[in-house]
Amino acid sequence: MISNWHKYWVQAFGALVIICCSSLLHAQAPAGQQPRLTFWSVRTGPETEPDQVLVKLLKLGTEFEIQQEQPQHYETIIHTLVEATQNSNNYYLARVPPYVFVAAEMLGANIEPLATYKSVATDDVVYHSWFVVRKQDLIDDQIISRDSEPTLENLVSFIRKRSENRNPVKFIYHDKFSTSSYFLPSLFFLRNDIFAIKRDAYGGAFASIYSEKPNDIEHSSELPARVVAGDGSGKSILAAVYDGTKMKVENQLGNDLAFIPLPTKLPNDLLVCSKWLDGGIKKRIQAAIKTRKLIDVAELMRIRQSRLGDFKEWKSIDEAEDADKSLAELRHLAQVHPSDVTVEVTASDPRSATSLEAVKNAIRLSQTEFKLHDPSFHGGTIPDYTWTIQSTHDGALSLSSQIHGFHVAPQEFVISFTDPEDLTKRVCQLIQSRLHRIRYIWPYEDETPTVIRDVDFNLDKGSVIEARRITWVDPVRDAFEPYNAFPVTVQASDFHRLRLDPSQFPLTNYRKLDFDPMSNETYQVLLIRPSEERLVFTVLTYGFLVLLGVAALVAVYDYRRRLRAEVPPSIVDDQLFKRNYQSILERYYGRWRNGEIAHANVLWCDRAPLEAFIEGLTAKGLNPSFNRIRKIIRRLSLFGKIPLVKDFLGVSVEKAVEDELIHDPSKLDDPARLSDVVPFLINKGLLSSFTGTQLEWDVLDTIASQVFQRFHAIPLATGNGHGRFISYENATLETLVSKHFDEVINESIPKASFFNQTWNVTERNGNGNGNGNGRQRVFEHKENITYKTGSDSSVSQMILRFRLPQEVDLGQLIDGKLNAWLLGKIHRRPYRENDGVKSLCIEFKPIALLQE
What we know:
Number of helices: 22
Helix content: 25-40%
Number of strands: 35
Shape: globular
Strand content: 25-35%
């Protein structure tokens, strides 16, 4: 019998060996694979050289292939980072300002910082935001003397004085996602009850300013000159800049301007990547930053140091503690906290005083946005909710929740309880799990109305909820002027945000949403919680409807059977087309839906991308059951006792054997692993609908056949010379086929494809992607298609292609052809033109090849 201590030492040694092997594999993977990275950046200034030098530094230090994209606007990069999270195989780096990073995180981007830069202006990895105002304006308004330096308190006094005189200060900025020029100043204004107004709407219990983005200003470095010049209307101009802009302009305009610092430290721009990026790749990027200087690479590229702007050198984030701390503080500042929602509680029965107090305590203890409406504090404002409670005959409590300003029926609840303490707990649970909730549109998004999600329920795509515009009069006391509520449709919803239909909101003259984070006008949205009807009532309801439907069918059957009229054929609409397409797909995958995949079926399988693909399914929350590691413990015990002298002396013998079997699905052989993966993808509907051919003509042919059958006719399928009912030369059908085929290709890009084709095999030197010089075999399939990509552009040929190393043994090929099922993902889909023939080339990254 092996002793316990020996067993533990064996297990510990085995675990150490596994960890060491995994580390070696990770360390070697990036060098062997030579990943291809895309570099994105935000257009923060007129210079492009800093990004070019950074990319060159990374290329030299890592030997990776890095494709630099053109710098984009702040909001564009945020959407790019969020969309890239949907594809775990997307390798990218991005240079972004700190609030762009935080905003992308809030919207669901799965990113992390790798490095930040050291500033020329501050010689540090952090910076400050500075308000910029004409000093003479403060002197003229007797806020400061000529020899004193203004403070933030002076600035607030100046803004309030101008507001009281009905001549508000105008705050200008270059982008809503700029950290120093907009986000941090906007927080300062809101904390000091300063709001941007529209159409001279005075009268609120706050100071008023104007807020404007001049169309001719692209960068923060242009703001100070505009502050000095004014806008010609006599209004005082206010802006905010960071240390680099301050240092650049204060020597030129310093006598005319006052710079007032905000106290919050901000991290400099960040180099970020996906959290899914391989750890070895991250280490090599950070090692490159640590070992190479920016100025040295600039000299190598013959770029002057003055063209690097504020960038002095890049530092790994683990060496920039101040930047890491200030980024954490910025995350905290950017969190969206729900505004107070006031609740008035009334009782229809004077005897319910005890219950009334218990319900009010529940509002206080629920730790949500709900607050008791206090007439002494909130004045004459209408509460957001009115709760009416009433005792029922069985000792329970009826609670009716009416939401004011929205067209929604009151929510009715019956609460059973034992005592006031129990009633308080149950109302707390009701608040958190069953009530509709009021939230606000996130005012930074200009393309799609967005609500940052912080509730525990989701809304399905297509759900209709309500929104309304409000104008704050006194935000502290929940006083506002409401407008009429209107219906809005949910376009998409996930763990991070709810996206609404923008066409249902008013737009500006520039076709943008009229949202302003600093404005006293905003939009409330009523999130209507999905109904949670008890299962028994749901079953009874549907059962009743089914019986009612059966009765109706029986009633008309006798009449219809004698006067059966010929029903005109169905119109070939979008839904009929998609149903037939799906029906063909289900038959297409029938062989693999439940079948066991044997060794003879597997021609080739690459386990690394297969296991990565399975991990991607788990990361998306699909949690495939076949991929769970299971432990099976088997115990065998033997016990015996031999008495020698009754009740005084005895001898016992005991022996126990314990075996632990660990079932790790990733260790299964290729056929067993594929037997789990392929049926799972088919049965869960996770495969793309692309089958390696243009299936749309088969669908139309099926529909035509069904129509003829309804007329009890068997047509001769010789109309177009292809043995089909449908002609390829019908322009209307060509448009329908092209439209659906384009949707199929676009939908297939993020998914895995699984289809059968006959492939022509060729050999080539090198693999064509820069990853080596070995011989490869190219597998290619060509066919004619109908695909109009625009008014003057038409694709007549489709080429499917994938590559395998020469040493892969696929057995005997017949006339250089291979008939096989390909499991893989679309890698690229370029268009090519040769001899006047335009082709759609779809290249796949293969995972496995199967044969029936």
